[in-house]
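Re: the request from the purification team.
They wanted to know what the chain is likely to look like in 3D before they choose a buffer screen. I agreed to run a prediction and write the result into the notebook, where they can find it.
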Amino acid sequence: MSKKILIIVSNTNAIGPNNRRTGNFLPEVAHPYAEFDRAGYQIDFASLSGDTPYLDALWMAADPDNLAFLVGKGWETMQKAKKLSDVDVSGYDAIFVPGGLAPMADMPENPLLKQVVRETYERGAVVGAVCHGPVALLNVKLSDGSYLVNGKNISSFTTAEEDNYARADVPFDLQTALTEQGAIYHVAEPWQPMSVADGNLVTGQNPASGKGVGEKMVKILEGK
């Protein structure tokens, strides 16, 4: 049977004191989606509120995988994302959380999301996230009371990248927050690809890392 992937997206469209327009960052959705699609997986979308999600970085639409997502089934399916509370996540082989600034607004503390991440991870399914998406892993406590990221090899959008992108707009620094919860943090030069797998957990640093995260998730899934 085909593997099933659930992409969990933010519903936020503005962030920070100046209401900076934001959304889910196009290549961070489209590049992993392309890897899952090429592997022949069933790909579904869920959002926290069930409202239509937003896309950011549409200026990058000329990229082949981004364009294929926009004009193919990807964006059409994403617009019909189900409310996360209405989805039986236990039926999926993997969950994936893309970035963009949007998740920094609605994902740091969402209790259902934290439960879904914990349960997915603990049953051995694959958990993936890229850029600001690893904020979904923040504050997740496992059944033994430890933080999920404690002692895990993790990457995300870095302090150095945020300083030159959206420092005034984000509520906290993601690299610092993950490190404070015990993450073994991996960093490449700003805007360069970096993805890392640790067991069934896969994370990536920035928009250039979405493809690598998708590839690593597929490799793990094909090994199961």
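For the purification team: The mean pLDDT is 98.
Please add any questions underneath this entry.
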